[in-house]
Specification:
By secondary structure, the protein is an alpha/beta fold. The chain has 6 helices and 5 strands. A 5-stranded parallel sheet has the order 1-5-4-2-3. Helix 5 links the parallel strand 4 and strand 5. The N and C termini lie far apart (58 Å).
């Protein structure tokens, strides 16, 4: 059994004071402009929301082993102006990869925003999706979307 030792006056949590509420609100609100989570993506997909597309930034092999239902496979290494021209500019793009130890979704988001797309990153990626118990598709079925 692990026992937590307490040293008086050595809190790691409060040794750095928190930001004032207005500054903290700006910080947390701005994070929501850049990120979404598996729960919100799943709820919107289940409810038929069409204002966004889900983009799997991993390798085609990882995509084939299991991906978010309806997600398009678009490995981050292949994203450039010519290849991204088929993506709709009028929809939000939600990128994801494997999870916390993968930054392919961040690389895809950086490339896509650099090309003028609106993007959010799905935090925790496929690891979070699986942990929540949401359905997974396998294979490489072609995906189409309206521009």
């Amino acid at each position: 059994m692990t026992t937590l030792l307490k040293s008086p006056g050595t809190s790691r949590v409060i040794e750095t004071p928190p930001a004032d509420p207005k500054t903290a609100n700006n910080h947390f609100s701005s994070r929501l402009a850049f990120e979404t989570d598996p729960s919100d993506v799943y709820a919107d997909l289940r409810n038929g929301e069409t204002g966004f597309i889900v983009l799997d930034a991993r390798t085609p092999e990882a995509y084939a082993r299991g991906h978010v239902p309806g997600a398009i496979s678009f490995p981050h290494r292949t994203i450039e102006a010519a290849t991204a021209s088929s993506l709709p500019k009028n929809k939000l793009i939600v990128t994801y990869c494997d999870g916390v130890f993968c930054n392919a979704s961040t690389k895809a988001a950086a490339k896509l925003t650099g090309l003028g797309f609106k993007v959010k990153e799905m935090i925790h990626g496929m690891a979070g999706w699986r942990e929540e118990g949401y359905p997974i598709e396998n294979g490489t079925a072609p995906v189409t979307f309206e521009k």
